[in-house]
## 1
Amino acid sequence: MGVKSGHERDRKQHAVACHCGSVRFRVRLADEFNTIRRCSCSYCRMRGAIAVSAQLADIEFDQGEDNLTLYQFNTGTAKHYFCKTCGIYTHHQRRSNPSQFGINVACIEGVSPFDFAAVEVIDGVSHPSDSGSSPRVAGVLRFEPTA
């Protein structure tokens, strides 16, 4: 793997795991949690995860890479990975930026989707790769604790 630059070494490495722990990896996020988002496409609506971005080179598997299963649909550009044992979505290679992974924030150690009061929902129905436009925010998902 080559020598890491000072900037790469300075970025925090997060531990990531599926529910059962069969799949474990470490990741350096592209811009920490400033890239959190949901998507409104048919698949993401059903999946319901909040994702955060990381460059493809910034993920290092500790175990279980062979325990992942792949799901692709429509154009086949995005690659969605799941643990074969517990079924949890851990990450996907992004359609709008194939040089990045979207990491399921719920799989990041010490992080919960409920840690974020507001999460932008990107318009995946009118995907930028189809329309040639920039990503459009379709709305905002909010979490307001009652206690």
Note: The chain has three helices and eleven strands.
## 2
Amino acid sequence: MQLAQQPHVPGVERDTAAQEVLEGVSSLIRAVRCIEHRQLMPDAGLRRADASVLKVLLKDGEQRGGEIAAKLGVDASVVSRQVTALEADGLVSRRPDPADARVGLVSLAPRGKAQLEAMYSSYTQQLRAALADLDDDALLAAAQTMQRVALAITEANKVVRRSQSTGDR
């Protein structure tokens, strides 16, 4: 997808390669959201944000809500509300942290793991079908590139946030 070569804002130089990455990422996000809207289990009430919490727990195991929030880049109060709802649905469980009883540890319940695995299995099947013309090497190369881009953007965002919080520009 080649974008117009002229800058959209007069006097601002256009970086075509960076803009193409931005457009590619935006297109990918839209495509994934289309799959999510069709695949998220409405009967179970599993939303994208719920799946994100469950995925963190699956990947990293039991942890405090604040740790989950930090990994997702959201406020701890957001995760606290999500965990309460997920616990009520039997998808996660909480117990007091032995190191600090004021804090709870959240873990993935078997039902939550099953729902998350079913959802990602369906995603994987759809993605494999959609990308049938790419072999495993091409898929892995694309995944590595996307992960490098995501990491670079995340790290750059951290620097920007630190400079904004300290007033450095």
Note: Residues 159 and 165 are 10 Å apart (CA to CA).
## 3
Amino acid sequence: MNAFCRPAQLPVLGLVVGLALAPTLAATPGLAASGPPPDYILTGNADLAFTSPDGATGIEQYMKDSGDFDVKWQAWARRGEQMTELKPEQGYGAGFRFTPDSQWLVRMQKTGSGEQDLYLYHVEKGAFVSATKTPFSDLAWAYFHSRPNTGKMKLDYHISANLVKGTEEAYRGLGVHWPDNRYLVISLSGEMDKHPKNVAVKGLADWRCRYDLKTGTFDVPAMFARTNAEALRWEIRR
């Protein structure tokens, strides 16, 4: 396995020049007595409401429509009377997934047609705060481009980072026996502008890596080697 890590004793990640990870400080919780601004309306879409496994935290999403396709969304974590904004504000609603111990939260954020980013949050002093200075997906892509067999691959559109299903059961469905509340499996995809004339679409499809919440390490378990090789060769011929 080829690991990509930060110092294990530090709780958060940062991205610096050269795609190296460096320590950062967790953001101060965006606490507010009244929650979102009054012109942001709580969505009635039940698919955009989420509750932590311990029942202590609920994720609420609020939308502001200013017309002319100017729509903004805010996500807030509610714990009792306390509300914390899960920054940043975005142009779409998002999906959320907790670890079983309710201590970590991943935001799956649509950013455009076929494109998605990931954000990682962690409980600090009873409130969820950003666990990384930059989007979690940026760190996953940095790891992807740091590897010798993927570093030169250029993707132009439909660039998407996804959290593979199975967090709740420590990915037992993949046939592994990893510790609970320890790993996240990330899937990366994207497409290229340049490709042969006999190819309709070419790019990257479902390239996977693993992130260790305890040590801040990205790696590629051997079980992903074959499918990752196929992901790098993905294309649809005319």
Note: The CA atoms of residues 19 and 146 lie 7 Å apart.
## 4
Amino acid sequence: MKFSEELIKKKGKNFKAGEIIFEENDPANEMYILISGSVGIHKRINDAYKLLIELKAGDMFGEMALIDNKPRSARAVAISSSLLFPVTENLLQQLIQTNSEFTLRLVKILSNRLREANYQITALLKGDRKNIVKSNLATFANIHGKPLNNGYVVGLQPFLKWAILRAGLDLKDIQEAINQLIRDRMVNRLPNDPGKLFVLDSLGKYDMEAS
């Protein structure tokens, strides 16, 4: 959805790269729509923060704390200089009641996050490293991939760097899982550039065999 430049100028919030937008367990009084830039959502695990997802322009975040009136479940950090549009609880209710485009987008975001969480939980319970990497690769391709035919082209090294922070696996495990996906023909190396992967669009769809 779009907001007028005047409204964004008046209500928008700017964050520099590396600046914390909110901390895990902070009280919440607003969610955000990312107008420009990129934001990372991090979860504290033991003594370190693990990157869960990288958001891009047009994404929303922080909505769950408004919906269930509980503290923030994760930390949000600006990866690059970012412009955010804050949405308070009252404004959220107004948008849901009056703006079908906003409501549909919010429902899709919540549905996708729930689907990904279910996929990750299933994979973790089974100890299936291939499915963990499969889920992460599908997410990475949707965020960072370049569309091509029925899939996306992604850089292998950028994905490895991204997945190490997020998948809870070491580099060797991730590389072995990618090789399995290549053997299963879910992923292909580009013949003219082995440093890039072609990821089928269907990779991110729910696989009944993983349930």
Note: The first helix runs from residue 5 to 11.
